[in-house]
């Protein structure tokens, strides 16, 4: 791995001013990312943000994550059981997780102002999640709602040797108890003030649609992580999404196309261009990642290999959230991909989802390290 160092963002002495204007013809865009080919940036002010150690971080437009929170019940097994078979686990424990909570925790650990909007049950697992996010630091929980009558969502994570996992999710409060129409007090207010909004598919599609539409109206870019429900993504939701981010298996399932080769992956990703999504960010596991921008050549990012893989749970969430943080900080496309790859590499070296989220300092150190 070659040595790469990202310049620290410049600090600002006054609140960050981000132009918000109607999309799609004139979408808010950090430098070199959303700007259409041939367009000019000189009609808008340069985007600059404070470094992670600067006292002015409260002036930055936050990362807003709207999504799920789960209690992850980990069981370490040698292999998956067959039909009708009972096997013994080597160990088991409960840790906070869920794609939304994971991504919010990652934003906090990367020292970027982050809000989490989600629902938990009024139970021990709900307290587990709140305690874990509060311990991370940097994650605001103003819009986390405790829902009576629904348990906190939970997942059974079957962890096999080598760090690979299989997961079964019970939605609980992630899927029940949401208001039919979201109000500003229930999260839309902070969505409209965000620098970028992160969504996943472990909460109802109609909630994601309301959030994405509110973000679009305010000129805030939306990243949709494809993880969660295995049903087709509603076309209405895709209409409001700027970056769609599946992993390889999700891309194959949702596109209905093979992903055996990079050429196959390219064709499958471009299918979503035809559905109105201008950018498709594909997570390819050990093969790295690739960004497909409509009308441009794909940008590949090799994986930054970890010396030892203990647990891949949360690696995709870490990648997506780190990419979002780099994006709102104004990094280039390639820098966003590399920053996210470094964060994911650090994540898989620690067991658990939220406990494995890397710090800003550790990501920067990895990127600056020699081969």
**Category from helices, strands and their pairing:** alpha/beta
Sheet with most strands: strand arrangement: 5-4-1-8-9-10-11-12-13
User: What is the 3D form?
Assistant: globular
The average pLDDT is 86
The helix content is 25-40%
Order of helices and strands: EEEHEHEEEHEHEHEHHEEEHHH
- Domain module count: 1
Count the helices. How many?
A: 10
Query: What would you say the CATH architecture is?
Result: 3-Layer(aba) Sandwich
Q: What low-confidence regions span 5 or more consecutive residues with pLDDT below 50?
A: 1-56
* CATH topology title: UDP-N-acetylmuramoyl-L-alanine:D-glutamate ligase
Active site: 317 (proton acceptor)
Subcellular location: Cytoplasm; Nucleus
Subunit structure: Homodimer.
Pathway: Carbohydrate metabolism; D-ribose degradation; D-ribose 5-phosphate from beta-D-ribopyranose: step 2/2
State the gist of this model.
The chain has 371 residues and is of the alpha/beta class. It has helices at residues 99-109, 124-136, 188-192, 205-217, 235-239, 248-255, 262-273, 315-328, 333-347, 360-368; strands spanning 63-66, 70-76, 91-97, 114-121, 139-147, 153-159, 165-170, 196-201, 222-228, 243-245, 279-283, 289-293, 299-301.
């Amino acid at each position: 791995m070659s040595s790469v160092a990202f310049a620290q963002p410049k600090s600002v002495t006054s609140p960050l001013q981000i132009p918000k204007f109607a999309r799609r013809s004139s979408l808010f865009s950090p430098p070199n990312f959303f700007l259409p080919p041939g367009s000019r940036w000189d009609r808008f002010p340069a985007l600059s943000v404070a470094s992670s150690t600067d006292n002015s971080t409260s002036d930055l437009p936050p990362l807003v994550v709207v999504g799920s929170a789960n209690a992850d019940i980990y069981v370490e097994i040698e292999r998956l059981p067959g039909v009708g078979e009972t096997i013994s686990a080597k160990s088991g424990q409960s840790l906070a997780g869920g794609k939304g909570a994971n991504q919010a925790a990652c934003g906090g650990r990367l020292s970027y102002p982050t809000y989490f909007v989600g629902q938990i049950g009024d139970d021990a697992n709900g307290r587990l999640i709140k305690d874990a996010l509060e311990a991370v630091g940097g994650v605001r929980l103003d819009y986390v709602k405790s829902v009576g009558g629904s348990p906190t969502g939970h997942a059974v994570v079957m962890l096999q040797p080598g760090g690979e996992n299989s997961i079964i999710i019970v939605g609980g409060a992630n899927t029940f108890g949401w208001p039919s129409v979201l109000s500003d007090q229930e999260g839309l207010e902070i969505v409209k003030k965000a620098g970028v909004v992160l969504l996943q598919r472990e909460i109802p599609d109609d909630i994601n649609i309301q959030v994405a539409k509110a973000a679009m109206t305010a000129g805030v870019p939306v990243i949709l992580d494809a993880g969660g429900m295995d049903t087709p993504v509603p076309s209405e939701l895709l209409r409001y999404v700027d970056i769609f981010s599946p992993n390889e298996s999700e891309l194959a399932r949702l596109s209905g196309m093979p992903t055996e080769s990079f050429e196959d992956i390219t064709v499958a990703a471009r299918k979503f261009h035809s559905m109105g999504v201008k950018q498709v960010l594909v997570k390819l596991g050990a093969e790295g990642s690739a960004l497909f921008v409509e009308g441009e050549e794909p940008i590949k990012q090799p994986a930054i290999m970890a010396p030892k893989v203990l647990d891949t749970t949360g690696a995709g969430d870490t990648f997506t959230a780190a990419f979002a943080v780099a994006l709102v900080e104004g990094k280039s496309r390639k820098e966003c991909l590399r920053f996210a790859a470094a964060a994911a590499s650090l994540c898989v070296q620690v067991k658990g989802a939220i406990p494995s989220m890397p710090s800003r300092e550790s990501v920067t150190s990895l990127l600056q390290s020699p081969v």
